[in-house]
Predict the structure.
Amino acid sequence: MLCLALLLAFTSLAPTTAQSTPATPTLREMADKNKFYVGAAVYTYHLSDPLHVETVKTQFNMMTPENEAKACELQKARGVFNFTKMDQLMDFAEQNNMVFRGHTLVWHSCTPNWFSNGKFSRDEAIQILRDHIMTVVGRYKGRIPIWDVVNEGIADGNGKMRVTPWQQMIGDDYIELAFRFAHEADPEALLFYNDYGAEGMNAKSDAIYNMVKDFKARGVPIDGVGLQAHLTLGDTRNGRGASPRIMGENIKRLGELGVQVQLTEVDIKHKGEPTEDILRQEAAEYRSVLQTCLDSGYCTAFIVWGVTDKYSWLRDSRFYDNPKVAPLLFDDHYQPKPAFTAILDLLARRAGEPPILSDDEVAILTGEKKPDSGAGAAAVPAPTKSDPAQLAPDSVAGAVYYAPFPVTITLDGETDDWTNVPRVTVDKGPTLPAGNDTSYQFAVTADDKKLYFLAEVKDSKLAYGTHNPASEWYLEDSVEFYLNTTGDLKLGEYKPGVVQIGILAANITKPDAPLIGGGNSDTSQVSVVAVKTEDGYRIEASVPLVTDAWKIVPAHMGVLGFQSHLNGSSADTRDTKLIWSAADTQDESWSNPSVFGQLVFWDKTK
Ligand code: XIL
């Protein structure tokens, strides 16, 4: 299956390294042993940091300029090229025997202003494209073996051509022309199309696949596809775009067209502080992505978008909103992170070298063995009641809610029938605006026909009725109740019987059918009443105990997976996210029921 002609001729590209062998093998050594490329994006300013220099040259056998080969950097005025920084990077790579990956000749985000703002005829624009590519690729002919010729040429969502200055002035064939010019400038260089959000199977990756197929059929010189892999924690989980199955399928179909694939800009973003748990998940996902790449047989390089977290582009608020984000392999002090060790171990094992991690550590990383699990699977602690009148014990913060039964509720917007049903206040979550004043209380109960939910929301500025309730309901004021009725509280994905019921504040307007959203919510048969209150709004809702999707039988100490969220907006989009279950630190309950907490039924007559 592995078509050798497709793979980079590793031996011809990878000059032998002349490093002394340290006690722990380096990533670079393990990459070399696998005849594989592990690269990093580098900026010239990094080179004045000695620790950076040391880390890059010992750990990576490939590098790519993070910014300084882009057209808006190289050709700031028409016909005036400045190669000073590129030369510095090129020299560094050559001095350290690293393969240089050229990034990138044509990219809408870094097109010189004089071109974007100019008015050129198709012929003039083609001439400008040709001049740029001939000059840049020509200058480094024989020294840069791989070029990202066009970056991000396909639009998000629909798989159509992205509208860019090049596309507008030349037409859709600017991509093919760029490849032809690059080939003319250096017939030996491998030419890649590079894009983001195309790791899995979707409209964009379909469009790329079709473009490559067409290029191959018509002899347009293309050798590879770069999948950027700017990922978010959770993206490799089963069913998501970077999961082994889906990304594996995409890489395979590209490989079968006769091109190679490289993961060209890997980083993994997350919310909040990089806790131990986040770093462990990050390590698992780095390993998973590399494994999918290696297993495919068509993937020849793994390039991270930076070396140390402290210089990551994601620390820049223009690109991401978490100044604490730690998306790379080395921490702010160049210490290797768990993600580094995870991929080093994978490469070591694949090369038949002594493993770096124990088998147990690997099993925990890959999810085959569970570490001590989160609240979702925690043992139920001995129940206590702080108020004897309460119909069920006190909740355990963020983990267990005791729902008394039987209690019958009328959905009328009044709360007298909720008296003595325990209430939980939720005022914490991953997204809170400055001076947040939104919080809510929820309560749950059941009789022999229905499960009832109450949410009392304190919110000084209601915002609802402006989004499409089918797709964007969570961007405006809404409360969510989640159930996992499958009995498997460790379930990591949605199945029938798992439901996210998002209930919009817009139900205050009394629509004919309840306004709801969320995974499987259409199977919930939920009824809703929503009313405005003095300081916010109130939602009462109920679902049948028996539906096509589940059969819930309230029994004393019987357990359901359960979770509740609140989405708050004060103007046009969500600015508040409150979450009850403490196991859900990343707002991932919409896709992962294992982070729910528990609802424990309590027979109030006992
Ligand atoms: C980013 C750089 O990391 C930033 O420093 C720069 O300001 C903007 O570009 N996809 C790409 C990369 O292909 O070139 C981008 O790099 C990140 C997204």
The first strand starts at residue 37 and ends at 42. The radius of gyration is 28 Å. The chain is about 25% helix and 20% strand.
